[in-house]
Every structure is written in structure tokens, then in C-alpha cells.
Specification:
The protein is 43% helix and 15% strand. By secondary structure, it is of the alpha/beta class.
């Protein structure tokens, strides 16, 4: 399969100040309105290739997932059809489409419900078997883009960061990003190490935290993508347990603080947990070292989260 150069430009890096701390912000949220953030990086491989053109893409996950929107955009760009399977379609969302779900529908995505008895680990094998029988030409994409192909686009992101750090004459950089499946963090650290062994000097360490499951779950995800522990990003353990998609006062507060101090809209599911977990850890253990935060997009999904936050903490709005 031949792959042509990426259609999107290098994403910009800007300097921000948060509570007096100066750091760099890599704006992957600005790659494209719909096809943005780490999903654009993870799906870049498919954007380049021919195999999806005019075909069928099948994905699965939550009806509000950032990956739903990016897959819908990918399908649109490839003039392909997206069937996105969900376990549960909230009736409130169907009655009042918003956020990622609404935008994905507008891009032509079809949302389909899985049979009630198919759950968790069973979903992917179920879809694989079903598609093999009924739609053998469709391409199934693992939840959240957890797949070997994701490395292609993430390696380009690693290159952008590496070249930028060289230009800045840095010899050390702490790169911060929250994890879901951990695919982006793992492939970033792996690609940066590969860069390093060939060209030397700037040492870029990736720091992440789990937002979807436990630290053990995240390590397990890393293991499924690489057998070499030296590729693993450093995991900072959250001081409190966050359940994915649940609302927390501290999360909306830090999100509002970031918006106020930087004028940048961060994402609401993942970013607050990284800011509450990794930043204090770095301030304590790696004080004074340069930091780059990776903005991984997903802000179109904020609409749904913000509406929920407004209902739960009206005093904050
Ligand atoms: C999907 C997503 C993540 C998680 O990425 P993984 O590669 O699964 O770890 C983090 N932040 C945002 C904004 C996302 O959309």
C-alpha cells in the first residue's frame, strides 16, 4: 500500500502560563475541526491509504466518544460509510443530539446498537465474526484507535516534537498527555526513543496518567502494544479515583481556570485529570524542567459535558 504525505500541517506550539508556571502547549486540537487531536494522528494511516476509499468503516465505542467524530470525519474524507456500534444509546441524547454524536450524524455516520448480551471484551470478536460473514470488505477499527497502524501518525507527531525541541536547543523535555487506551502515549515514547538512538541529544520523557481504568489496566494496554518496557511512558497515579465520564467539581474547576488563564479550551473528559495528576507531580519531583503539554483535541465533545456540568454545579457558571 502506498502512503502519501500527510495532508495536514505541523500543529503549532505555543507558550502558556498556568498559575505562574510557564510551559509549552502543542496544539493538536488545531489540526482540523473534525479530524483533530490524537484520533487524527491515530487514523492518519487510513487517511493516506487507498483501502477505505468508497468503502465501509466500522467502529464501536460510546455514542459520545471523540473517536466517533473523528471516524465520521475520516469516512467523509474517504467517501466511505461509517457504521458505529454502541452498547447503549441514551434516549436523552437521541432526543437532543449534541456534541460528538450530533456532529457525527451530520457527517453521515450511522449509529447502530449492539445486541444487549454483547459486552466489553466480547464486542470486537463479535463484530469481527459478524463482518466477516456479512461485509467482508469493511474495515473494523479497534476502540479508540488501539492498533498497530496508529503508530504511523503518532510517529509523525513525535518527529514534530523532536524537531521543535532541537530547534529550541533543549536537552530535556517532559511531555505530558492523559491516556485512555494509552496508544498515543506508548507510540509517542517508542517513536521518540527510536529518533533518539539515531540522532542523539534531546531526551524527551513521556508522562501520562490513566483516565479510563486503573494503572494496571494502562500497563496491560502498553504490554499489548510493545514487549519492550523501555517504550513505556511514565505513569503518574491519580491521587483520587476518577470514573470515566463522571462529573467532578475539581475537573470543571481546573478546566475553567485553564480557559481563563490561557484562553485555550481544553477537553473535559481527559485533560482535567492530567492537569490535576501529572502537573503537581512534576512540580514536586521534576521542578524547573521544561514541560510540553499535548492538547489532543476532542473539544467538540465538550458541549455535552458542559451541559451536564451546568446542571450539576450551577454555582460555577
Ligand atoms: C481519545 C482521547 C484520549 C485518549 O487517547 P489514547 O490514545 O486512547 O490514550 C485522550 N484525550 C483526548 C482528547 C482524546 O480524544
Amino acid at each position: 500500500m502506498s502512503i502519501s504525505p500527510l495532508p495536514f500541517q505541523t500543529s503549532p506550539v505555543q507558550s502558556i502560563q498556568v498559575n505562574g508556571l510557564e510551559l509549552w502547549l502543542k496544539r493538536d486540537d488545531l489540526l482540523d475541526t473534525y479530524f483533530s487531536g490524537n484520533k487524527a494522528r491515530k487514523f492518519a494511516y487510513f487517511l493516506q491509504g487507498e483501502q477505505l476509499q468508497g468503502g465501509k468503516i466500522v467502529g464501536y465505542g460510546s455514542a459520545q466518544a471523540n473517536s466517533l467524530l473523528s471516524l465520521a470525519a475520516l469516512a467523509k474524507l474517504k467517501q466511505a460509510q461509517l457504521d458505529f456500534y454502541v452498547q447503549h444509546l441514551p434516549s436523552l441524547l437521541v432526543a437532543n443530539p449534541s456534541g460528538n454524536y450530533q456532529h457525527a450524524l451530520a457527517l453521515g455516520a450511522k449509529i447502530k446498537c449492539l445486541p444487549a448480551e454483547i459486552k466489553g471484551e466480547q464486542i470486537e470478536p463479535y463484530l469481527r465474526a459478524m463482518l466477516k460473514q456479512n461485509e467482508p470488505d469493511s474495515v473494523l477499527i479497534s476502540e479508540g484507535g488501539r492498533m498497530a497502524e496508529a503508530k504511523y501518525g503518532v510517529a509523525q507527531l513525535a518527529d514534530e516534537i523532536y524537531l521543535w525541541a532541537k530547534q529550541q536547543n533543549l536537552c530535556q523535555l517532559n511531555l505530558v498527555l492523559p491516556s485512555g487506551t494509552g496508544t498515543t502515549a506508548l507510540f509517542l515514547q517508542q517513536s521518540l526513543r527510536e529518533r533518539l538512538s539515531s540522532q542523539g541529544d534531546v531526551n524527551i520523557e513521556v508522562f501520562t496518567c490513566p483516565c479510563v481504568g486503573s494503572v494496571d489496566y494502562l500497563v496491560q494496554q502498553f504490554r499489548s502494544l510493545s514487549t519492550d518496557e523501555a517504550d513505556f511512558p511514565q505513569i503518574v497515579t491519580p491521587t483520587k479515583k476518577y470514573h470515566f465520564g463522571k462529573l467532578y467539581r475539581q475537573c470543571i474547576e481546573i478546566w475553567q481556570l485553564l480557559l481563563q488563564q490561557t484562553q485555550v479550551e481544553f477537553e473535559l473528559l481527559y485533560d482535567p485529570i492530567a492537569w490535576l495528576t501529572i502537573m503537581p507531580w512534576l512540580a514536586e519531583h521534576r521542578q524547573g524542567e521544561p514541560i510540553m503539554y499535548l492538547h489532543q483535541g476532542g473539544v467538540l465533545g465538550n458541549e455535552t459535558m458542559l451541559a451536564r456540568y451546568r446542571r450539576k454545579y450551577p454555582d460555577l457558571f
